[in-house]
Amino acid sequence: MINPTRWLLLSGLLLLSNLSVKANERTKEMLGQQLFFDVNLSKNRTQSCATCHDPNHGFIDARQHAKQGGSIGDDDQSIGDRNAPTASYARFSPDFRLNKEGKYIGGQFHDGREKDLKGQAGGPPINPSEMGLSDKAATVDRLMENKGYITQFEQLYGKAIFANKDKAYAAMAESIARFEKTNFFAPFDSKYDRHLDGKYQLTPAEDLGMTLFFSQQFTNCNLCHQLNKIPATDKETFSNYEYHNIGVPINTALRKVNGKGAQFIDHGLLDNPAVSDKKQDGKFKVPTLRNIAVTAPYMHNGIFKDLKTVVLFYDKYNSKSAKRRINPETGKPWAVPEVAENIALKELQTGPALANQRINALVAFLKILTDKRYEHLLEQ
User: Fold this and answer.
1) Shared-domain flag, residues 343 and 293
2) pTM for the whole thing?
């Protein structure tokens, strides 16, 4: 269970310690912090942002039912078809756009449908499958139940802020986004970061895994999961924020629960209202690998439960071994892709097949990308 008081105190200390932030901006961050944990911003007053982005568990939905892939809504019935992405390090995703190479990058959510964190923060409260409030006006009415909110909003956004409920709603989303941009969500204090600072000695497996990961000869990991061009540099978020179809199968177990059925197809980037190019069908944003070892299940639909399974899934594109044709979680051959077109074979088939030792080394390296406060979760 989330302990809001504990996290409010800890994150409040973190915010107050950032003396380089202007007072007004810091106050908006602290308002956003309160809003992030407020269950009153959902229809039945049961969910907050922190419910599906739990700060105790790498900012994912850590509830038992979510282990099958989808998050349950405030109505206690609606189950989403996508895995709740981590909110950690989300601030580093650039605004959604076409880059100079003609590739879509950035944005928030798996399909980039919101340009930035402010847009993302404004989505869940009025999503009927999530927090479930009817509209922006209903959400602002909930804000106005709290005299403390009224005082803070008027101080930060002007006395007339509640006269226009759309503007008040936008102010709420901005405040939450400000909180999500703080170092509370991105401390950069993993064993990897400490190693770069000379404060942690890698084990042989971790060292091998890091070498393999950043190598352009022995793996293809860095093609999508490296932002900085210099290997082993600090402040690496381990995503280039592009979109790719890597052939992820349908999560049939989740579909049975949420009622979508096998006939439903998640088109990923193509479902983004700003995208109409069918060549984008089945593509999803490359996620950060920060905290990846403690934020299972994996892929946009949560189909894989174990991190090693994910690495083996990638290796199947290069390996000719019969064992690599089998999903270790099901004991059956890997299921067919949900969208068979537009698969990023150029990237996926770059590099050689990996021996078991190298598979295990990569997993060992991925584990050291875990923020310090979540390292105890690795033991679980």
Assistant:
1) yes
2) 0.91
